[in-house]
Amino acid sequence: MAKRALIQSLSNVDIRLLRIFMTVTECGGFAASELELDIGRSTISKHVSDLELRIGLKLCNRGPSGFALTAEGEKVLEAAHKLMSSIDGFQSEIDDIHSKLTGTLRIGLFDQSSTNPDARIHDAIRHFDMVAPDVALDIALAPPSTLEARVTDGTMDVAVVPIHRQSSLLSYTPLYLEHMTLYCGEGHALFDAPEELSIADLKLGTQKYAGYAFNSPNMKAGRQLGIKRAAQVQEEEALSLLIQSGRYLGFLADHVAETFLRKGTVRPIAPNHTGYSTTFAAITRKKPEPDRKTLEFMSCLRAAHDEVINRLDVS
Questions:
Q1: Which residue spans within 29-169 are E strands per DSSP?
Q2: Is this structure's pTM higher than 0.70?
Q3: Per the domain annotation, does 181 fall within a domain?
């Protein structure tokens, strides 16, 4: 009948005793291992005796004839080397997990992020790929309300949206500003109107207005000017088309309108009175906390926009 092992499960004490035993055998005896272990010979002898007691085997002979491993001791030494190698391998794999980021990072963006000169999201992506080359990216464009909902329910890791109505379930990290101005297109009744006309003279309430179909700073600005929405859109690309048709007023980001201004196909309407600025922020959910790859990407976003944030005093 096989003898039952005395050690049911290894503990830190067992591993420490095995390491001492291995050092003693490498040094060739108790006396020779004193310097290496920085403990006295009698203490070393007691540790080896404790190990022998715990595993129920005589590991070595010690006495006037010198130190020598028993047959069982040689087998235990071989097993101990395998055990320590496995422990070291496990530690290396854990370290490797900590050092490498994997999986997919799901990013959400609102319209026209690539054309805003203060939006440095591309810089953040470049730096993130340098530190986390094994992480795949899944980027989606959607309205802010959709992006906030997806981050909240965990189907998206991080999104960049204009700050409007902040959710208590999300964390907001300001990144950059975007300035919007009311525009009309060539052929519109206001396209050739004198620049000195006041808001009252422009009679904006009688004009067709195209705006976003969701709650946003855009919707708020339109209401403050007293203009009613006659067309609704989800993206700025569609808004640009409606404005260029010459039939609708609408807000465009200044960096988006630049191309049309150069072509002479749009003009700003009372920019000193109709313009407004919006803060764009990166959002993550508060609970559960973002995983390591999301936190790393957030760090890259902050670093990429640090200069912009300081210059624009985004708060």
A1: 60-61, 68-69, 103-109, 135-141, 158-162
A2: no
A3: yes
